[in-house]
């Protein structure tokens, strides 16, 4: 289900506030926010350093299974980016998408085997490289966007605090 | 399914940097520039930036077309970007999405697996019903791709396709089932995933797969797959209890053996589901329950909060059927109430709800009350509050043994600061006071104390705030004022000036109940002959009421004014020493009975009453405007007045009660909530001579502001102790008097529960139900549920008509149109064929039925065998081979099919009508033939893929509201005194150089016409098709004879070489006319005119294809203009459609684009515009001569308008 951008943003914001106020030592499940789907849906998240990975799932998914899946996803990111950090994610948002698309497709779990995922990603990267000079393009795209924001406000950004938002990946239902 | 997002701990950038918007808009401008460039790399780059901006919350749908351009790039790098952007911003409302169909199809069949993969991934996010229909077949092919990478994606996306295009489910299902046993684990898991998702919504259709899944469960080692299957079994077991029995053992084994917590948890969950489905009398499964509870306890005791949470969640499921096994873990659950995690506390609360019994209710609530005091957040505190009330009030206050205790709990809850649930508490107070007669005295004393304590009034006055309880307090004190010990004091409390700061609706209740109180005071005083005291009370009212009269709230003001006048009148009467008390209290005589919440809904609609019919003619707009405010006023007036019968005296009431009792006794639908119906309508004094409670509670703890409930707990314990002693004594005496008399609810009580008798005689008055109440309220499924469409029986073999639409050349699809030109002989043949087919079908159907049975037997067999685990999972049902049964049509399918066809048929009929109208003058026989044909037409339509139904959005203008003038394409060929010939020429798509001429021959004479023969003089270009062996000079016989006054139609086929020009052929019809006087040989000459129009065939065209055609630039242009046209545009279009075989592609106001095709494949596009009195037609055609001729012909037609 693709929703208008404002609603997407609102969901992200609401989810963010819900998740943010939770301590680390409490459970990783949150029952239905008002915007997302209703009582059949749960938010399941994992917290890694400064990053939260939030999945919204309905009752057909196993809660613990999804927690494992997030772990798989993050480990895959780690392998693909070699020691992933927030900056990797923000500057290579498209790549993050491609990786996620190998894990989850159209809102359904596609693959849970990390080696298989990594193999497919790498094959696609090779294909992209073989197509030559274009590989620079996506990187340029992001840096172009980045340049819009960053040069104007360098003083305000404190990389240590990581004032970066990794936006929501496209909404799947 | 899952929605996924991920983001970091930080805020949206724009929240920090409000000036960012400026840069974004700058950036978007830049992107727009880049999108305009021809370089695909630059474009892709720009689209990539857009995907980033989209994630920041900016709308990028304006770039949809550019995204499609990037999607269709040849390089994978770009394509991937395009599809990513599409998956983010395309949705069903995106209009350009239909342009992607061919591109996606191309990518799906691309040799590179990653192109295909990317297309599948993208499609999964934005698939629309149209795309699903058009691509279903392609995706199904991919399900058997050689690469597992593609297979698993294709399998997974099928779920999306099913959702959007449910017709595809049956044809695709056999292959999907095959994939359950795919050698690749990824594909297998995807198939399991899809089937589980489908089965979750409509489990019954998938029961037959149980053996297969069982095999998978016992053989698979993939935890993901196992979890999915086990979850699926959880959904299936309620439908087939035998399945549950079979499952228990392997599941228990898994529970014992697995190390994966997630798997363990799901196993426990499913075992619980099985146990629930088996709950009726399976004592030997207590071991399984114990095992589950045991494992869950381990989960709950785990330090991992997630496990704790899930353990509680699963525990609450067990609770529903096996409360006893959970109750033994009460300690653990109470402990969870202290957890720092709110989710866990809430779960524990849910569990408590089901764990209470008469025995432990007080204890649990006491514990909860301490939590209420400790709780810091108001949300959690409110949650606790509602839970306390829920727990106590559940199933008609089943567990409350002492209502005084409950009232004091409620009173204690009113001390909560800032709660939102004042309303809830108030409702409870009212409910208890009304329904538990014995408690009224106590309740009234507590309520008057509440009214006295001003601190409540002073606190917040916001709506739903705690002050809401004053509403209840005032009402209870007023209604049951006879129980008040010091009514005067309460009266004064209610008349305090502070009361005017309360919300309006509470003040209104105050005013009303002040009068009730006053009435009872008056009575007391008059009985005691204290006239002065009575007058003093009156004076008090006269003094204090004006403060309410001045209220800003209309309701309060109005009531106060009325009351004030009444009291002043009473004062006058009192001054004359007239006794008034009787009459004043008569105002409030009578008893209120609680009405069941669903009573209104259950009133049956009397026969012959149509609720939708207007009672009066609907008022015009202007009237209703006037009336609206009036109605509101009316409402206001009515609401507060309670419907009572002040005139009804005691006798009358008793009589009515008796009658009602009779009615209810005879009414099978009357829901008796109390097992002792004789007691229910006892008159009030009846309560007193129930010899239940001997303990002296008559000194209630009514010190206001003191938590009294604790004392009740103690007292209750003492009471119970005493009761037990008493009972022993009774037993010794062997008295037969049974305690059971006091039980209200015999069901569900544990034995120890039954022993506890309630402190008060609580005759919870039965809620009233209307006569003839409907037995139950059926909760229908939501008709809009998208998953409902997928409720399809999958065991039936596939029907011929169910094949997925396969992409064909347009011409193939339009085969249906030239039906009527079919040569009769061919028609007959096809009929025969159909008959055969029918027979065959019937046979097939029987087979199918048998097969279905066999299958059912298979499942039964599998289920009936005693569980032979892993090794021999019974015979799996033979996978049916739908391909083999392709011809077989299950009867139901046909019905469905027919239904689906219906609207189409209607359209057909409409078309037919247009054609038939002019033919009315023709004789019956002709009509019959037509009907037959139309049937044929329908049949032929039925054979088409279902997509056709949608693929014909353009219905030659015939669908619009305005009635069309009758039109006929038949024109006069020749006529003499014997016969009249009318004809029509139609192109045929089967053969690109043939046209069919239908000639209607009408016998005008009184002679019998026979041996008719038609001959034409062939030209080089156009020749008549003659039977084999005939020379060019031989005529073609007409296959029928014509009795006098009869008409019939004959068809002749002509071959044409060039169709760009109109043609004329000379011909002769020869026949023998036979009458009484003898027979004569006659001849009739004619000229057959083949217009260019007759070579055109009505062909529907999508607007996107049309646009592409126009853009292609291969077409030559020409135009005409006709003046002096008065006909409406719609009729005009219909005329062009009808006479010139065009179809409307798109119509905007007075402008329309039209399309047609010649039998030789020339495209003809028209743009028709209507000016004020003129019409201009711009044409584009692949052949300029054809176009010129066509337009000339059209000019003639239009000139006639």
From TrEMBL, chain A:
The keyword Transport applies. Gene3D superfamilies: 3.30.450.60. Residues 3-127 form the AP complex mu/sigma subunit domain. It is found in: Cytoplasmic vesicle membrane; Golgi apparatus. InterPro entries: AP_complex_ssu, AP_mu_sigma_su, APS3, Clathrin_sm-chain_CS, Longin-like_dom_sf. It is a peripheral membrane protein. Keywords: Cytoplasmic vesicle, Golgi apparatus, Membrane, Protein transport, Transport. Part of the AP-3 complex, an adaptor-related complex which is not clathrin-associated. The complex is associated with the Golgi region as well as more peripheral structures. It facilitates the budding of vesicles from the Golgi membrane and may be directly involved in trafficking to lysosomes. In concert with the BLOC-1 complex, AP-3 is required to target cargos into vesicles assembled at cell bodies for delivery into neurites and nerve terminals. PANTHER family: ADAPTOR COMPLEXES SMALL SUBUNIT FAMILY. This is AP-3 complex subunit sigma-2 isoform X2. It comes from Trichechus manatus latirostris. The gene is AP3S2.
Automatic annotation (TrEMBL), chain B:
The lineage of its organism: Eukaryota, Metazoa, Chordata, Craniata, Vertebrata. It is a peripheral membrane protein. It comes from Trichechus manatus latirostris (Florida manatee). This is AP-3 complex subunit delta-1. Residues 726-747, 829-853, 919-928 have a biased composition (Basic residues). Its main location: cytoplasm. Keywords: Acetylation, Coiled coil, Cytoplasm, Golgi apparatus, Membrane, Phosphoprotein, Protein transport, Repeat, Transport. One of its GO terms (cellular component) is terminal bouton. It comes from the Eukaryota. Part of the AP-3 complex, an adaptor-related complex which is not clathrin-associated. The complex is associated with the Golgi region as well as more peripheral structures. It facilitates the budding of vesicles from the Golgi membrane and may be directly involved in trafficking to lysosomes. Involved in process of CD8+ T-cell and NK cell degranulation. In concert with the BLOC-1 complex, AP-3 is required to target cargos into vesicles assembled at cell bodies for delivery into neurites and nerve terminals. Residues 866-879 have a biased composition (Pro residues). The keyword Protein transport applies.
């Amino acid at each position: 289900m693709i929703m208008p951008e404002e609603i997407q943003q609102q969901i992200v914001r609401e989810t963010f506030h819900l998740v943010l106020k939770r301590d680390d030592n409490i459970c990783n499940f949150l029952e239905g926010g008002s915007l997302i789907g209703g009582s059949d849906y749960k938010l399941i998240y994992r917290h890694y350093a400064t990053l939260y990975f939030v999945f919204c799932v309905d009752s057909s998914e196993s809660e613990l299974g999804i927690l494992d899946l997030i772990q798989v996803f993050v480990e895959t990111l780690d392998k693909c980016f070699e020691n992933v950090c927030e900056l990797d994610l923000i500057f290579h948002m498209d790549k993050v998408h491609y990786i996620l698309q190998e894990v989850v497709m159209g809102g359904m779990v596609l693959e849970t085997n990390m080696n298989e995922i990594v193999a497919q990603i790498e094959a696609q990267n090779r294909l992209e490289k073989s197509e030559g000079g274009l590989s620079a393009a996506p990187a340029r795209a992001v840096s172009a966007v980045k340049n819009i924001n960053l040069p104007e406000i360098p003083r305000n950004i404190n990389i240590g605090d990581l004032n970066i938002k990794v936006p929501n990946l496209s909404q799947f239902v | 399914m899952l929605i996924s997002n991920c983001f970091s701990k930080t805020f949206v950038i724009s929240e920090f940097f409000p000036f960012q918007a400026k840069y974004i808009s700058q950036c978007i401008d830049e992107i727009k520039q880049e999108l305009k460039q021809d370089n695909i790399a630059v474009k892709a780059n720009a689209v990539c930036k857009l995907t980033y901006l989209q994630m920041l919350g900016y709308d990028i749908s304006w770039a949809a077309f550019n995204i499609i351009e990037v999607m269709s790039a040849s390089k994978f790098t770009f394509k991937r970007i395009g599809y990513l952007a599409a998956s983010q911003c395309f949705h069903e409302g995106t209009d350009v999405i239909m342009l992607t169909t061919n591109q996606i199809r191309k990518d799906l069949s691309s040799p590179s697996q990653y192109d295909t993969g990317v297309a599948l991934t993208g499609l999964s996010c934005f698939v629309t019903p149209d795309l699903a229909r058009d691509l279903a077949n392609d995706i199904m092919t991919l399900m058997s791709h050689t690469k597992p990478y593609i297979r698993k994606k294709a399998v997974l996306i099928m779920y999306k396709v099913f959702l959007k295009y449910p017709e595809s489910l049956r044809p695709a299902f056999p292959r999907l089932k095959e994939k359950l046993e795919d050698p690749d684990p990824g594909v297998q898991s995807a198939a399991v995933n899809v089937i589980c998702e489908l089965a979750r919504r409509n489990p019954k259709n998938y029961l037959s797969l149980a053996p297969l899944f069982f095999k998978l469960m016992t053989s698979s080692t993939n935890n993901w797959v196992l979890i999915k299957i086990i979850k699926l079994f959880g959904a299936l077991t309620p439908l087939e209890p035998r399945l549950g029995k079979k499952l228990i053992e392997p599941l228990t084994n898994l529970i014992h053996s697995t190390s994966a917590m997630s798997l363990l948890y799901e196993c426990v969950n499913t075992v619980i589901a099985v146990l629930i489905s088996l709950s009726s009398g399976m004592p030997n499964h207590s071991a399984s329950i114990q095992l589950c509870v045991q494992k869950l306890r381990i989960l709950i005791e785990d330090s991992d909060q997630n496990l704790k949470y899930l353990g509680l969640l699963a525990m609450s499921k067990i609770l529903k059927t096996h409360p006893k096994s959970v109750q033994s873990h009460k300690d653990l659950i109470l402990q969870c109430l202290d957890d720092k995690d709110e989710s866990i506390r809430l779960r524990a609360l849910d569990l408590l709800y089901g764990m209470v019994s008469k025995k432990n209710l007080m204890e649990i609530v006491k514990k909860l009350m301490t939590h209420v005091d400790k709780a810091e957040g108001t949300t959690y505190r409110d949650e606790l509050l509602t839970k306390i009330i829920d727990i106590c009030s559940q199933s008609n206050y089943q567990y409350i043994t002492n209502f005084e205790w409950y009232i004091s709990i409620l009173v204690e809850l009113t001390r909560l600061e800032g709660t939102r649930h004042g309303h809830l508490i108030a409702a409870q107070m009212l409910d208890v006071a009304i329904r538990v007669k014995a408690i009224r005295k106590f309740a009234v004393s507590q309520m008057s104390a509440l009214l006295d304590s001003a601190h409540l009034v002073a606190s917040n006055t916001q709506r739903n705030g705690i002050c809401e309880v004053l509403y209840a307090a005032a009402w209870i004190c007023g209604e049951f004022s006879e129980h008040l010990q010091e009514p005067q004091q309460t009266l004064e409390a209610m008349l305090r000036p502070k009361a005017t700061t309360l919300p309006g609706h509470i003040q209104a209740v105050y005013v009303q109940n002040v009068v009730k109180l006053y009435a009872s005071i008056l009575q007391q005083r008059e009985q005691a002959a204290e006239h002065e005291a009575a007058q003093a009370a009156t004076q008090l009212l006269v003094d204090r009421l004006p403060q309410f009269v001045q209220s800003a709230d209309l309701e309060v003001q109005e009531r106060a004014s009325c009351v004030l006048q009444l009291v002043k009148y009473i004062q006058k009467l009192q001054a004359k020493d007239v006794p008034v008390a009787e009459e004043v209290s008569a105002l409030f005589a009578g008893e209120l009975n609680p009405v069941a919440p669903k009573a209104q809904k259950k009133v049956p609609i009397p026969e012959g009453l149509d609720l939708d019919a207007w009672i009066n003619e609907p008022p015009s707009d202007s009237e209703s405007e006037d009336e609206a405010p009036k109605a509101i006023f009316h409402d206001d007036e009515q609401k507060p007045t309670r419907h009572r019968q002040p005139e009804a005296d005691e006798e009358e009431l008793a009589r009515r009660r008796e009658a009602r009792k009779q009615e209810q006794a005879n009414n099978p639908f009357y829901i008796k909530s109390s097992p002792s119906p004789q007691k229910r309508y006892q008159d009030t004094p009846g309560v007193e001579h129930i010899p239940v409670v001997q303990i002296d509670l008559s000194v209630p703890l009514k010190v206001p502001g003191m938590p009294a409930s604790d004392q009740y707990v103690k007292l209750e314990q003492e009471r119970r102790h005493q009761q037990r002693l008493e009972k022993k004594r009774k037993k010794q005496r062997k008295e037969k008097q049974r305690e059971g008399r006091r039980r209200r609810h015999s069901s569900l009580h544990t034995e120890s529960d039954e022993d506890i008798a309630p402190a008060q005689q609580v005759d919870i008055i039965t809620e009233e139900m209307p006569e003839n109440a409907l037995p139950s309220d059926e909760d229908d499924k939501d008709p809009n549920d998208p998953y409902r469409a997928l409720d399809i029986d999958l065991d039936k073999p596939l029907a011929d008509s169910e094949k997925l639409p396969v992409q064909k050349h347009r011409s193939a699809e339009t085969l249906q149109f030239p039906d009527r030109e079919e040569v009769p002989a061919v028609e007959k043949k096809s009929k025969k064929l159909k008959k055969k087919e029918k027979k065959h079908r019937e046979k097939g159907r029987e087979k199918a039925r048998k097969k279905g049975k066999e299958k059912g037997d298979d499942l039964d067999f599998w289920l009936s065998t005693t569980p032979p685990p892993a090794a021999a999972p019974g015979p799996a049902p033979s996978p049916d081979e739908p391909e083999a049964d392709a011809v077989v049509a299950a009867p139901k399918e046909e019905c469905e099919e027919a239904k689906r066809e219906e609207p189409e048929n209607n359209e057909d009929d409409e078309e037919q009508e247009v054609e038939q109208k002019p033919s009315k003058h023709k004789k019956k026989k002709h009509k019959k033939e037509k009907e037959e044909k139309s049937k044929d037409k329908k049949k032929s339509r039925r054979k088409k893929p279902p997509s056709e139904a949608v693929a014909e959005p353009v219905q030659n203008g015939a669908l619009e509201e305005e009635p069309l003038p009758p039109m006929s394409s038949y024109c006069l060929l020749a006529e003499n005194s014997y016969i009249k010939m009318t004809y029509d020429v139609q192109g045929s798509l089967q053969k690109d150089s043939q046209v069919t001429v239908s000639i209607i021959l009408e016998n005008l004479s009184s002679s019998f016409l026979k041996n008719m023969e038609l001959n034409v003089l062939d030209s080089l270009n156009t020749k008549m098709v003659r039977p084999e062996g005939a020379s060019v000079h031989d005529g073609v016989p007409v296959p029928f004879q014509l009795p006098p006054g009869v008409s019939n139609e004959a068809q002749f086929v002509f071959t044409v070489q060039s169709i760009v020009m109109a043609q004329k052929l000379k011909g002769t019809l020869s026949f023998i006319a036979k009458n009484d006087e003898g027979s004569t040989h006659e001849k009739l000459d004619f000229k057959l005119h083949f217009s260019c129009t007759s070579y055109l065939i009505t062909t529907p065209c999508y607007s996107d294809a049309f646009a592409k055609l126009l853009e292609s630039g291969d077409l030559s242009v020409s135009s005409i203009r006709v003046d002096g046209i008065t006909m409406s545009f719609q009729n005009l279009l219909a005329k062009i459609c009808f006479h010139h075989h065009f179809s409307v592609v798109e119509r905007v106001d007075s402008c329309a684009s039209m399309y047609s095709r010649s039998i030789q494949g020339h495209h003809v596009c028209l743009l028709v515009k209507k000016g004020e009195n003129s019409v201009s037609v711009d044409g584009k055609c692949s052949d300029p001569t054809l176009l010129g001729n066509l337009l000339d012909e059209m000019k003639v037609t239009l000139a006639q308008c």
